[in-house]
Amino acid sequence: RVDGDVRKWLAAQQPGEPLRLAVLARAYHAPWAEAYQSPALVAKVVALIDDLCARFAADPNLVDTEPKWRSFGPAGYAVAALAVPLAPYLDQPLTIGGATMTRRAAWADALAASVEWRRTHRRHYTNQSMISDMNLYQSNRGLAVLDPARALPEDVARRYLHEAVGLEPWLGDWRPDGSHDRRFGDSYYQTTRRGQTRELGYVGGYGEVLDWVAKIYEASCAGGSPGDPALLDHLAAMVDARLPF
Questions:
Q1: Residue 27 belongs to some domain of the structure
Q2: Ranges of H-type helices in 99-204
Q3: What is the pTM of this model?
Q4: Cβ–Cβ contacts within 10 Å for residue 155, how many?
Q5: Contact in structure between 60 and 25 (CB atoms under 8 Å)
Q6: Which one, of 136, 140, 42, 138, lies nearest residue 82 by Cα?
Q7: In the chain, how many domains are there?
Q8: Are residues 186 and 203 in contact, defined by beta-carbon separation less than 8 angstroms?
Q9: Is residue 59 within 8 Å of residue 96, measured between CB atoms?
């Protein structure tokens, strides 16, 4: 199935859906995949992100309307995961919105906007918080590859992941003065001590977020770095807490 989808995407004339970027980045590193270390796959990733940046230049609201609270997180994930094969493309000229700049600059502008939007428009429902903050983090990982001076420090970006899964208090939207709005106070956690989720009370089907916590842990491994052990331990605790249900 994965090989078939990737084969179809690479053959398509149009760039395609940005969510494909995460699959393409994984396929590039998978020895069993037909597109393993494929230059054509890297070229498709470049085309996808170029198209995303062009659409963002034409409509800055795309950072909000790109669906499911993700902004440009998939692009950030791909940039971090494919930093080495993408490197030859980054300083090539690219015309975006009538202006010519390097591809690095255009991509960095989009990812910086994604980070800014996601940390100033956070979601407080548990599953939505996980999706939004994971994409914030992925955007920042990509930005750190392109323009480290514009990226959040890793510990600051990772705190958003910790807040989303309940490891640290959820502090709400970031403010320009460096504070957070703390709309629920200083000690609101997205999960209980044992790892149960809550959405205006405790929930069943809507609270099944173990898949998102696993994705958040994987996001912390982007670019080949070791994953966050605190996230992995918390994921294991959440699995134990959900087993009776």
A1: no
A2: 103-120, 126-146, 154-165
A3: 0.94
A4: 8
A5: no
A6: 42
A7: 1
A8: no
A9: no
